[in-house]
Amino acid sequence: MTQPADNSGVAGMLCFSLYSASHAFTQLYRPLLEKFELTYPQYLVMVSLWNKDGQNVKELGSTLFLDSSTLSPLLKRLNAAGLITRTRNPQDEREVLLHLTEKGRALQERAGDVMQCIGEAAALDAETLETLRSTIDALRDRLHQSAN
Amino acid sequence: MTQPADNSGVAGMLCFSLYSASHAFTQLYRPLLEKFELTYPQYLVMVSLWNKDGQNVKELGSTLFLDSSTLSPLLKRLNAAGLITRTRNPQDEREVLLHLTEKGRALQERAGDVMQCIGEAAALDAETLETLRSTIDALRDRLHQSAN
DNA sequence: TGCAAATAGATCGCGCACAAAGTAATTTGT
DNA sequence: ACAAATTACTTTGTGCGCGATCTATTTGCA
Asked: Hey, what CATH topology would domain B25-146 get?
């Protein structure tokens, strides 16, 4: 009974689970991010830049699985909020390089509390969470592959 | 090392995994649903109504974790497409009852292929998928609880 | 060298997603 | 009985998310 004879039913349930769980995370983050005046996608961009400053839009998009039509306006808003700068790469004027401002870097310290709250709400041991994460990532990559 | 001392880092990674995996599902569904002229959220609504016809908006929203301000325009579009009807409940004129039309019911047959494709793309045995689903659902409900 | 193809972003249009505020019907409290 | 509170849904405004299309820059290759 462990044969992958017909996954269609289970996969149908799973896609709904992911859909609603992802929204649940967004809804949990929203009030926490409110005092920083960040939306959840904006926060994910900041996390990515805290991890690696100076990325261009394409690079950022490939890690977040978002394309430039989503990121361009979002990045403009982060720029307007004074958290990042957007400058063309002199070596290749097609690229827009994204750099944290002082204010953007400073936000990282204050955002530690947010992570803390999420960790508590998840209320699972690190090992279970990590297993869950890697299973989901593997599934995501397989779906991404199928979609070409 | 299995103590939940500090989940914040892992939980941070996990929320991103869910975020991107959910999008990956959407992107996989999109081309499959195109020939039915349905978006992914519209499809989820149809699945819910195939499961239980005659729900009202609130009931539908609680199963999909969406509120009426998202559903109202979506349901109007499904109505305009001739897939559902929207009628006030005579017993309580506040409620809008959602019923499948003949065309809406007929769509269910043709949608079997979609589930099939998703099941194949997931490419995991049913048991693993089911475990994954139930873990995510439990997490989602805990997050939902935390958000009050 | 010259010019087509490829690449990086930006813009536009449409459909979610959700907070806030509005409308109408029903229930509750006195 | 009837005003206040509650409930179900709609409307409005803002910000994603993405396909399609556009502009500007760089690369390839004949």
From this structure: Arc Repressor Mutant, subunit A (1.10.10)
Question: How far in angstroms lies nucleotide C13's C1' from the CA of residue A73?
Answer: 15
List Cα–Cα distances, A48 to A55, A68, B85, in angstroms.
9, 15, 45
Instruction: Tell me the β-bridge partners of B92.
Output: B89
User: Cβ-count burial of B103 within 10 angstroms (0-12 exposed, 13-18 middle, 19+ buried)?
Assistant: exposed
Look at the block and give the residue holding tokens 């439990």.
B138
Q: Is the CB of A27 under 7 A from strand C?
A: yes
CA angle, corner B122, sides to B14 and B62, nearest 5? 60
Q: What is the CA radius of gyration of chain B?
A: 18
Given 3-state DSSP classes, what are the helix, strand and coil percentages for chain B, each rounded to the nearest 5? 70, 10, 20
Give pLDDT tens digits for B61-81. Answer: 999 999 999 999 999 999 999
Helix/strand/coil for A56: strand
Shortest alpha-carbon distance between residue B105 and chain A (Å): 18
Give strand ranges (E) for B1-148: 84-89, 92-100
The domain at A32-110 falls in which architecture? Orthogonal Bundle (1.10)
The residue ranges of every structural domain in chain A are 32-110, 111-148
Query: For chain B, what is the largest distance between any 2 Cα atoms, rounded to a whole number of angstroms?
Result: 59
The CA–CA distances, whole Å, from A54 to A84, A89, A101, A132, B12 equal 10, 10, 11, 31, 22
> Which nucleotides of chain D are near protein (any atom < 7 Å from a CB)?
7-13, 15-21, 24-27
Per-residue pLDDT of A83-135, as tens digits, reads: 999 999 999 999 999 999 999 999 999 988 888 888 888 777 888 888 889 99
